[in-house]
């Protein structure tokens, strides 16, 4: 399957000044599968006795199912000895770890407390070397998200109406995890490979708008 690739996906990712292809890899925004559907259903007033209360109801939303984004590797060390480190907008050095080929062994249940991938497969790059691993080579957890809104428009006159909205984001409260591929100083950092954050849980809000 084809995937999007580049040498750098943002200003925060420098290229190796001695080998411009050293950081060739999967783009940070590459997403192999992305299914999104939006809908807006006006509830027929005829289902109930027509009145100002029963007219104007609608249900809308966006549903998204997608595969995960690539896990980005980065290190704050300078084992490469080229003095390219965090500086202003440059958020990471260009050091990459060494990979021993023992497999990623993805953990598909982040709730069990174990790392998302096989951290033992990675070791710090030796002094004076870049490291043999790419910035991104495998993907994190997918996305399963539903946003919904129940809204009603009540017309008082031709030019005046009141809209009430109840909106829910991540309405089924699915956890969306983000594994940590960054390390501070060396690859043995305690948080390396752990799931440290997730997208927002279910969030709801109520809004009212009067048009005149």
Describe this structure in words.
This protein starts with a strand and ends with a strand. A five-stranded antiparallel beta sheet has the order 3-4-8-9-13, with no helix packed on it. It has a two-stranded antiparallel ribbon with strand order 1-2. The protein has a two-stranded parallel ribbon with strand order 5-11. The chain is built from no helices and 13 strands. The radius of gyration is 24 Å and the shape is elongated. The model has no long low-confidence stretch (mean pLDDT 82). It is 0% helix and 34% strand. With 212 residues, it is mainly beta. A hairpin with a 2-residue loop joins strand 8 (143-157) and strand 9 (160-169). It has one domain (5-211).
Shape, principal axes of CA atoms? elongated
Helix content: under 10%
Low-confidence stretches: none
Overall number of domains: 1
Strands ordered across the widest β-sheet: 3-4-8-9-13
| SS elements, strand count | 13
Instruction: Please give the alpha-carbon distance between the first and last residues.
Output: 53 Å
How many helices? The count is 0
Largest β-sheet summary: 5 strands, antiparallel
Sequence of secondary-structure elements: EEEEEEEEEEEEE
Approximately what portion of the residues adopt beta-strand conformation? 25-35%
Estimated structural class: mainly beta
What's the Cα radius of gyration? 24 Å
Q: What is the arithmetic mean of pLDDT?
A: 82
Please summarize what this structure is.
With 212 residues, the protein is an all-beta fold.
Q: How is this fold's topology laid out?
A:
Elements lengths: L4 E2 L18 E2 L7 E9 L14 E10 L7 E2 L22 E2 L22 E2 L19 E15 L2 E10 L7 E3 L2 E2 L11 E4 L4 E9 L1
Parallel strand pairs: 5-11
Antiparallel strand pairs: 1-2, 3-4, 4-8, 6-7, 8-9, 9-13, 10-12
